[in-house]
Design brief:
Layout (H helix, E strand, L loop, with lengths): L11 H14 L3 H16 L1 H10 L6 H21 L1
């Protein structure tokens, strides 16, 4: 089965940098673009889980979040005053 083809426009400077990277690593553009896309999707996929959690009602109470940050700030202040 053939892989889908993606096509998009990009700034000339990025193309030159990609070509330099490709030459330096002895890998083609496609290799680097696939890796970059996979890393980006992995890093940004938390959105999908967050939306699914919210849709399922798995939310944290605002009071709990505020208490956590107040406690964290208090401990930070305490540590700074000890120094």
């Amino acid at each position: 089965m053939a892989s889908p083809v993606l096509s998009f426009r990009v700034e000339e400077t990025l193309v030159k940098q990609l070509d330099q990277l490709s030459e330096a690593t002895d890998r083609d553009r496609q290799y680097h673009l696939k890796r970059a896309l996979a890393r980006y999707i992995e890093a940004e996929s938390w959105h999908i889980k967050a939306i699914a959690d919210a849709d399922a009602g798995n939310l944290t109470d605002l009071k709990t979040i505020k208490a956590k940050w107040v406690d964290r700030a208090k401990h930070r202040t305490d540590r700074q005053s000890e120094q």
